[in-house]
């Protein structure tokens, strides 16, 4: 397995599932580290659709990887490995989100600032960089206001770039439902941006 | 097709999921309506911007915790 990873030059060279699964089952730490580094960012984002804080999302991702370590022996290849891992993540995150919604007062959830991107606005930097930082913060905020089902779909489709078929499989929803959720989410983000640009006098 | 109907179909259009009868109506409306052309531009700009958001990764602590867990699980497994 090791050669496969050493030659790895980018996402396109990502080893195929059977190679990854064999590596995980044989305890190849390099393979596990590769997966962690490739998928955890997307997993954190997706988890954040269901739970109320970034710290909570990280715990969901950790629990998911621990479950993957335990269960990789049972992976049968009926979906892609990534879909399988993401489905475990979604189940874990949903359960935790439901627990949180019973125990955390709504006001404290609403009051939290959208996490993720610190408004990395280069101080004294060029106007363009400041603007890009503002737009990012705005989009982040817009995404943070979405209902979790919409947020999960827009995270996977537009932020992570997954195809609609895989998204339907990960979230166990129909193609038509997926499209409705994605469209509502995009329209809401567009509305936030439009309001911002109107205030500034154009894009 | 009116402007509201147009706005509802943008994602279906982008996913190449419009049926043969709706697609020409959608394109025809866009060609005639500057408001919807603008909406379409903002909609696709939002999608592009979403794809460019930076994503934070796992904390170093969580990462090393998981690598340790993997190592321990592997050494426990009977080969
Ligand atoms: Zn129109």
Tell me what the structure shows.
- The complex is a heterodimer of chains A (203) and B (79).
- With 203 residues, chain A is mainly alpha-helical.
- Chain A folds into two domains: 12-114, RNA polymerase sigma factor, region 2, helix turn helix motif (Rna Polymerase Sigma Factor, Chain: A, Orthogonal Bundle); 118-203, Arc Repressor Mutant, subunit A.
- Chain A is 71% helix and 0% strand.
- Chain A is built from ten helices and no strands.
- Chain A has helices at 2-6, 17-25, 29-47, 54-71, 81-103, 106-111, 127-144, 148-159, 164-171, 175-200.
- Mean pLDDT of chain A is 84; it is low at 1-11 and 107-125.
- The longest helix of chain B is centred in the middle third of the chain and has 18 residues, at 34-51.
- The N and C termini of chain B lie far apart (65 Å).
- In chain B, 15% of the residues are buried.
- The mean pLDDT of chain B is 93.
- Chains A and B meet through helix 3, helix 4, helix 7, helix 8 and helix 10 of A and helix 2, helix 4 and helix 5 of B.
- The complex binds zinc ion.
- Residues 3, 6, 29, 33, 35-36 of chain B line the site of zinc ion (ZN).
